[in-house]
Structures are given as structure tokens and as C-alpha cells.
Specification:
153 residues, alpha+beta, 5-stranded antiparallel sheet, 3 helices
């Protein structure tokens, strides 16, 4: 009898990156879920980043995201790194640019793996690395009229 690690479903997919994108339109959790669906995955982890109504003790009215032209390529590079590090069956990441309001989705990432622990770890690695390495900038407008630029996601 073959060991469970010999089963094809226990191995990473040959082409696990299903969706990478920078969007000017509203993001969809359902789209990311569809992209990372895989019958061999026992765990799927999602992270949904939303625009919150405060930052650093100040009320946020709105914000805008902008990015460098290389942002999508950088997202793909990070996705490839995560897929090489974990047994990823499917991976997706989309980030919004443009003007957003409180409650809007800013980023949605998802990862499916054979087991839940791997999915959680890979998803966390994906969002953390995207936040720190992809050239996306946030321009926040506060209720008191002040503004602030924040580097990366």
C-alpha cells in the first residue's frame, strides 16, 4: 500500500497560481474562493483586508490606493515564492487600487493546501509578504482634514 505522501493530492499542484491581479473595481471573495477551489485540498484559508474607519487614533473618512506598474509582477513573484515553500494546490491574490470607502475590500488572498495548517501558514506568508514587498501605497484622508501617505499595502 502506498503511503499518504505518495498520493498526488498531497503534493503541490504543477501550476498553483490561479489568480493574480490589481483591480480598479470592487473585489469579490467568491471569485477568490472559486479560484482556490481544489478537490485535493483539505484546507483553504482566506484573508480579506477591508478599509477600517480609524488608524493611529484618528478617524479615517476615505483612502486611495495607488501602485507602481511593477506591482502585479511583484505579486506574482511573491505568490511563486509561497507556492515553492508550501504544498499549495491553488493560490489567488487580488488588490484594489483607486478610491475606497470605509468597509470596502482592499485585498483578498486565498490559498488551498492538502491540510489546514499548511493553508493557514501559506496564506499568512502570502499576505504578509505582499504587504511588505509589493509597491502599493495608501493615501488616507482623516476626519480632521489631514492626510497621510503610507508605504506598501
Amino acid at each position: 500500500m502506498a503511503s499518504s505522501s505518495d498520493h498526488p493530492g498531497e503534493r503541490p499542484a504543477e501550476e498553483p497560481i490561479k489568480l493574480i491581479g490589481i483591480r480598479e473595481t470592487a473585489l469579490s471573495v467568491d471569485e477568490v474562493m472559486r479560484a482556490v477551489g481544489d478537490d485535493a485540498a483539505g484546507g483553504t484559508a482566506l484573508f480579506v483586508g477591508t478599509v477600517r474607519n480609524h488608524d493611529g487614533g484618528a478617524d479615517v473618512d476615505r483612502l486611495g490606493y495607488s501602485c507602481h506598474p511593477s506591482a502585479e509582477a511583484e505579486m506574482r513573484r511573491i505568490a511563486e515564492k509561497v507556492a515553492a515553500e508550501y504544498p499549495v494546490r491553488a493560490l489567488a491574490a487580488v488588490h484594489r487600487v483607486g478610491d475606497l470607502r470605509v468597509g470596502d475590500l482592499a485585498v483578498v488572498v486565498g490559498v488551498s493546501c492538502p491540510h489546514r495548517g499548511e493553508a493557514f501558514e501559506a496564506c499568512r506568508k502570502l499576505i504578509d509578504d505582499l504587504k511588505h514587498e509589493v509597491p502599493i501605497w495608501k493615501h488616507q484622508t482623516f476626519s480632521d482634514g489631514t492626510e497621510e501617505w503610507v508605504g506598501a499595502c
